[in-house]
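Our preliminary data section would be incomplete without showing what the modeling component actually yields. Below, a chain of 371 amino acids is followed by its predicted structure, encoded as tokens that our downstream tools consume directly.
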Amino acid sequence: MSGPEPTPGVPKWVYIVAMPVVNLAAAFLVSGLVVLLVGEDPLEVVKILLWGAFGFQEAIGYTLYYTTNFIFTGLAVAVAFHCGLFNIGGEGQAYIGGLGVGLACLYLDFLPFPLLLLSVIAAAALFGGAWAFIPAYLQAKRGSHIVITTIMFNFLAATLMVYLMVNVLIEPGQMSPETREFDAAAWLPFAHEALAWIGIGFARSPLNLSFLWALICCVLMWGFIWHTRWGYAVRAVGGNEAAAVYGGISPARTIILAMCISGALAGFLGVNEIMGVQHRLLLDFTAGYGFVGIAVALMGRNHPVGICLAALLFGALYQGGAELAFEVPKMTRDMVVVIQGLVILFSGALEFMFKPYLEAPFLRRRQVGAA
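Predicted structure:
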């Protein structure tokens, strides 16, 4: 499930580079037609969107802040994909991972910051991975479909968080379902603060040092999937479970491993949102990032480099779309969501639509050479 099956004689770059680019171009072409229908100039809309995403320092900070969330959720989906699993429970796993982050920041803030940060990362991974373990166990041992169980666990996570925030963790004396603000020692430094330490000025934004952790996770995922025996087992089960069994690999154990890692990666979204930005535990901080991570993984071909690029694209759409909705009244937030949806449509459901046309020149050349 890491991409289309390559056809003999067709270079790999056709599937890795050309196909995503063509799909993205088709999505933007259709988006341009939608923009024309509402009476706006597509080129002007693109100009405003790009300026809103990259035109000034604050915009870049917001774009990379959104990108951080999409990297975590995209990696989470990709690890499960490599094992042949469609984990759409990233939203719930991120929610519970954020719970772990919040508890660590609330009750371990007496630790030195390096130990606290390690504890927060471990809590995010433990809580997110534990929430993914149950659907993984049901799939591996009971045959319950992973799609159904992860959907259910998204709702269970939301319900659990409402109960905890309203009845257990809410700060006394207030109506809003939020915890107390964390001690300042438990705040993850913002990017503009970190850059100021080395004498570089940068505009204030929600971007924080969890962006670096997201990039590190990309490297760790690449090393795990392609350079460890556990990663080989994950890819073997995802490629052909019967052959994996013949080779001595346990599909049940591998499924559970892949899903727990997937849940842990999704849980890291809480490091960015809870420790890095909100500085308190609150409801609905996941904001749909777990679902967009599916499109990020598909567009990125489940490879860390591709996921980073796809996450940057969706980060730009989120930030640039907000600026676009502000500057052009007809391009409401709903219209921006339509553009995002078209990108998801062409990257997901229609991702193989242009495959025969991209392969055709190479296949004809091969036929001529054979003749």
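The chain has a mean pLDDT of 91. Residues 71-302 form one domain. Preliminary results of this kind motivate Aim 1 of the renewal.
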